[in-house]
Amino acid sequence: MRSNESPLTKCPVCGNKGSKVRRITLDALLTPGAAARIGDTQYRFCDNPQCRIVYFDEADSTFSRADLTVRVGVKEQSSPRPVCYCFDHTIEEIEAEVRETGRSSVLDDIKTRIKTACWCETKNPQGSCCLGAVGRYVKRALAEHASHCGSDTIQEKPHECCAHDAVSTCEMGHR
């Protein structure tokens, strides 16, 4: 373990390092019964597809997929597997478009639409912008269907999104 990592940043079930999630995300996506169990601690998102835990905190309080009101695309095995919660894009949509056309328009669609509205913190279980994840799925689909693809490249750098603002504008639905 690196000196700047504490066990508190790791999922108590699988040991995967979790990313911080703001309270607004949990409040929006947990079932009422689960939301009543939220403590006053920092929660993290576990993105390990094989792990049953979605959120955990330093007190080992956990929430599983059954505690959420939405499907957690990264943890799902069956369709539809959401990847963009604001604009309803799925992993299957990306794969189908790449199979059919050799490219994906999903990233362009999201980048265009987030200029006027996005709700990442209250719709995406990760509590953050989906563009990085979408880019990885597009890149993976392009690699799997390389015979149909040209030289499309995917940028995996962070993108401007309301979930990255210091003051959340997600609940307002615009920038």
Task: Explain how this protein is built.
The protein has a four-stranded antiparallel beta sheet with strand order 1-2-3-4. A hairpin with a 4-residue loop joins strand 3 (53-57) and strand 4 (62-64). Helix 3 (91-101) crosses helix 6 (131-144) and helix 4 packs antiparallel against helix 6. It is globular, with a radius of gyration of 17 Å. By secondary structure, it is of the alpha+beta class. The protein has six helices and six strands.
Question: Which key terms come to mind for this protein?
Answer:
single chain, N-terminal domain of TfIIb, two-stranded antiparallel ribbon, 175 residues, 4-stranded antiparallel sheet, alpha+beta, 27% helix, globular, disordered C terminus, 2 domains
Task: Write a short abstract of this structure.
By secondary structure, this protein is α+β, with helices and mostly antiparallel strands. It has helices at 23-29, 32-35, 91-101, 106-113, 120-123, 131-144, and strands at residues 19-21, 43-45, 53-57, 62-64, 82-84, 89-90.
Helix-strand layout with pairing:
Blueprint: E1 19-21, H1 23-29, H2 32-35, E2 43-45, E3 53-57, E4 62-64, E5 82-84, E6 89-90, H3 91-101, H4 106-113, H5 120-123, H6 131-144
Antiparallel strand pairs: 1-2, 2-3, 3-4, 5-6
Helix pairs in contact: 3-6, 4-6
Order of helices and strands: EHHEEEEEHHHH
Query: Which strands sit side by side, in order, in the main sheet?
Result: 1-2-3-4
Helicity level? 25-40%
Spatial extent as radius of gyration? 17 Å
Structurally, the number of domains stands at 2
